[in-house]
Structure formats: structure tokens, C-alpha cells
């Protein structure tokens, strides 16, 4: 560590604090010096305060008019063990300001291994001026060299550059004045008193040695792939609770593409083309451990029938997991090797087995390196869940229209959604149509509210309809039209070898789909990005995946991978849009989709016209501008409720995961639901914020709907959500 001057009393005092407390002080002082903002005695007086009290006192003592209220780190759940994220912003003069800690729901592999407090997310200011001169460029280089040499000091902790990730255009939109690149610095040295007993894996290591703990990154073939491969540790994941030492990890060969004579087909680089790019297999006993919409870092609170509370890790939540996922998108780290891709459930495999392919291996193990300190882990990025409804994008509209689908089809579709969005707050039929399209977001709560007779002018119902309408208008502004019987599914390859070149197997909630389907991959700027394929039933599939659902299987036959034809896709987690209801345009697509390779001139003509159409659509998109009286201290009650009930909200009221599964007396549930409703709405009224009403419906929505339906004194008609969707098409 570079030699330091005598440590100031202020920094020494700051070093006695828990890290997140010290960081919060540095956040709230902004660009002021620590010595000018707070005294040593004041720092030490704050040392032993609980975090919520600490934040309030520091805010009152330091912020004044320097920081907006919206930037205040006021959290009611400091102690819920949620991941903490710490940000640093470096301006053009090299001055650092700190932001955070931010509480999130998921961690990266980097955070999980090192600890939240040992990772610093750094963004650099970017000079957007058009007249950048050499002097400015030289100054920027000097700044970067200085930080690369000395790192960034957070109090008495020194963080050094470790890895970066480019957020692209989306990250740039968030802040046009800073770089879209996020740099991740990690703790390498510390003089803080609170760290003296720290058992930290990176202490006294070089950055190169530290990186080898995650993967043998020096083994990548080119410099250009170095950071891209290392950034695999930055994916937000949940860890599969499995000891990799007891897992049988084997590598099987990729399936090559072959011509009609059985010869392997090679690409322009001389590498064999493959059908299985990015996908392997996992045994059922491991797959079933994959949580369903649960982050492993969260501590779940189970409310027992006798009222006792027990905190348990999500590893004990097996009874909530159910059927194993059909497909798992993952990152796997083992003995210096880094793997990226998807794992398909294979019930035929022996327990504790994972099969990967060479195409999944992004960093190979260096056999000359020790793997004693390697961090081995299977990290889950996503799993095949019930799919979201797919939309027709402006690119696909352009392709389909040129292929012969009449423009009137899209105009009629657009007008239907505009009409529903405009009248949803006044017309029950339009409101129900909008609500069911967004039913997956709230378990059809808004639909339940409408169907049980709650008036459309009910405040929370109005709020939710307004949010749904705004969401639809935003989608329409970007020319995204939802289509019935269209879904987004993760893709993999046929493990049975049954499918022919233009066949797929699509598995949804009701099982395998049969018939013509349209398969598309965003962004879809080329003709091959949309395919009309035949979905068939594959009997042997059931022996491999059982009752698992939600994926599309592509064939392992042909001279080129079918996924590669669709927007140069692969199977490491790519999502495909599938439309069952393609009948309305399939008849028009032959001209576009059946052009042979010999039709070069016609294809070139089509390409030019398509580019013109895309420009026209871009211009079009840019055109729009877009009963009981309860006397309580509402704020205190709501803070308590939000803090105490954020886990297992419905379980607390119903004694079960769902209202219909409850064994409690209905009368008791209704009384408590009414009490929650009244307290919440009184608090929302006092705060003049209708959004606060959300809490009552999140906790007691199903009970309140059932109570309102009973009070109508009319017969209720049972309706399944899928039937409701069919009716409202």
C-alpha cells in the first residue's frame, strides 16, 4: 500500500464505524471535506446507534440544503439482510462523491464472494463537448492513470479496479453526462480500525491473484475477450445451494451441423458450425433446488399457525419450489473454469450430474495453476417460468407488412388497444380487457376487483388502471402491439433428435403445442429473423423432462443452426417470441420467407425497401410527445406494517399462501382485512398519496374482493383466468 501521511483524527474516527455507516456519512457530506462537515466527537457519538436512528441523525446534522430529499437513503428495512450496493462518481477533476448504500433484491457473484461492503461501483464523468482538445484528453488520461495506480480511497479503505461492464445505450439514457461503463473496484487494503480483525480473501493479494480466485482469466485466447469473460461475475444471480465438490461435472461434445452427405459444415474461420451452442444438461435432483422467483440472499419469515415467528434460509423452502424448471440459465465457476449457458432438465441423468459442452466454456482451467482458493459455484440467472405475452415490434411489423400482411390488420389492432386504454377508467369492459392483459403482474387482482363489483372509481382500482393504461400507451408509443397467443420463451435444442429442419417443439402450460407457429427474435432487422415453423408433438420428450414446462426446442439437423438463422442467436439464455395465432398472416409470408439463395437481386431490393420502412417507423415513433372508526398514529402503524409484513404478506392474514387455501374462519379474515383497509386508506389520505393504498390490496386483496362479492348478495360465477382471456380477445 502506498505510504500515507499521518491519518487525520476524523478518518481514524470514521474507521471505527461499521462500513455502511461510514459510507453514509461520506454520501451525505457531498463534495465537502470530512473535517469541515462533522467533528470527531460527533462521529464517535453516532457509532453505536441502530442504522435507522443513525441515518436520521446524520441527515439532520449534515445534509441541510446540499442534498435533495429524493436522494436520501431512508430505508425501513436496513436489517433485512438485503444486498447493499455502494456507488462512487468521479468528476472530470478527479473528485469523488459517494452515493448509497442502495438496497437491492439480488447480488452478483462478485458481491457474494467478497461481501457487499468490499465492492464499489464506480462511474466516470464524460465530457460531451464537441470541441475536446488534446489538453483535455491528456488530463483525462492522467486522471485514469492516477486512479489505476492508487485506487480510490473510501475513508481508510483502498479499492482497486477489478472489472468493468458496458451498460450500452440504456445506461447512457440514465445519465447522459457520465460514461455508460460501470467499473467495479474491490477492497484490497485497509487501515480502518473496524477492519483489523477482518478475514478477507483478497488481503495481501495482487489484482491478478484476486482475479484467479474467480477464474483463470489469463487463459483467454485474446485481449478483447478478457473483460467480457471476467464480467460474467457481474450477472445478478441467485446461488444454487450445492457443493460443487460432490457434483459430477462432465463435458460432452457439441452436435455439429452437417450437409446432406453427412459432412461437417465449417464457418468462414474454419470452425465447425454447431447446433448446440450454449446448452447442456442438469439432473433432476439439482434442478429441483432452483428457487422459483426467490432470491437466495433473502431471509424469509414464516408465520406458523400458533403465531410464532421463525426466520429460516430459503434453503428450507423446498415445499414452495414444486416441479423443477425445464431450463436454467446459469453461470458456473469451477476450479478456474467459467461456464455460461443453459442447462436442460434431464431426468435420465444420475443424481448430482451436470453436463456442459465446449461451446459453454468461456474460460478454461489452467492446469499449471493451483485451484485451492478457487471459488466454485453454480449461479442461477433465470429459469423457465410462465411466459410473458409477446408484442409485435415495429421491426416485425415492417417485415410482415412487406411479406403481405395488410396494414389494416395492424391498424385495427392498434385502434383496439388505444380504445381500451382511453376508456378503461370509465367502461368496465375496457377496464377488464386492460386488466387481464396485465394479470400476470398482480395475480389478476385488478380483474378480481372489477369482477366482484368494486366500482371503477375506487381509488386504488383507479390507480392500478391508470398504471396499466400508461404502460400500454408507452408500449404503443414505441409501436409494441400485444398479440394474443404469443409468448416469450427461452430456447434450447431437441435432446431426442426427432425434430426436422423446420420443426420445433413448444411447451406451454397446457403441454406441447401443435401447428404452424411464427418464431421471431428481437431486433429482427433481417428477413431470416422471422421464421414460420411447424410445432410438433415429441413423445420421447416426456421421458427426459417429465412435466416441466415453458421452452422452445430447436432441431439438431441441417447445415446451419436454426437459432443462428434467427438474428444470430444461440442457446445461452436467448429469448424467442412465439406466436400460435399466426394464421392471420402466415398465408402472406411465402414471398418473403421462401426466397432462395439464388434470388440475390430481389433480396437486395427487399433489403433496401426494408431499411426505408424501418426509418419511417422510427420517425413515426418519435412523433408523439409524448365502516369502523380507528384512531391511530398512521405513520407509525404503516412503518411497522411495512417493516414487519414485507415477507409472507398474505400468509400472515390467511394462514396460507392463498385465500382459497386458508383454514381460518372467513369472519376473522374479513374483520382483519377491513382493519388493514381502513388503517391503510386513512394513512394514504393523511399523506395525500393514493399509492399508499397499494399495501392494503397487496396484503388483503383477495379477502377484500371476496367480502365485497358476498355483500352484493348475488350469486358469484367461477371463471378461470385463462377462460377470461379467451373471452376478452
UniProtKB/TrEMBL annotation:
Q: Which InterPro entries match?
A: RDRP (IPR007855), RDRP_C_head (IPR058752), RDRP_core (IPR057596), RDRP_helical (IPR058751)
Q: Which reaction does it catalyse?
A: RNA(n) + a ribonucleoside 5'-triphosphate = RNA(n+1) + diphosphate
Tell me which EC number(s) this protein carries. Answer: 2.7.7.48
* Domain RDRP C-terminal head span(s) in chain numbering: 649-714
What is a biological process (GO) this protein takes part in? siRNA processing
Q: Name one GO cellular component term.
A: nuclear RNA-directed RNA polymerase complex
Stretches assigned to the RDRP helical domain: 9-76
Q: Keyword check for RNA-binding, yes or no.
A: yes
Which keywords are on file for this protein? Nucleotidyltransferase, RNA-binding, RNA-directed RNA polymerase, RNA-mediated gene silencing, Transferase
Where does the RDRP core domain start and stop, copy by copy? Answer: 96-580
One GO MF term, please?
RNA binding
Keyword ATP-binding recorded: no
Which family is this protein grouped under?
Answer: Belongs to the RdRP family.
The entry's function note states: Probably involved in the RNA silencing pathway and required for the generation of small interfering RNAs (siRNAs).
The molecule here is called RNA-dependent RNA polymerase
Protein source organism: Acorus gramineus (Dwarf sweet flag)
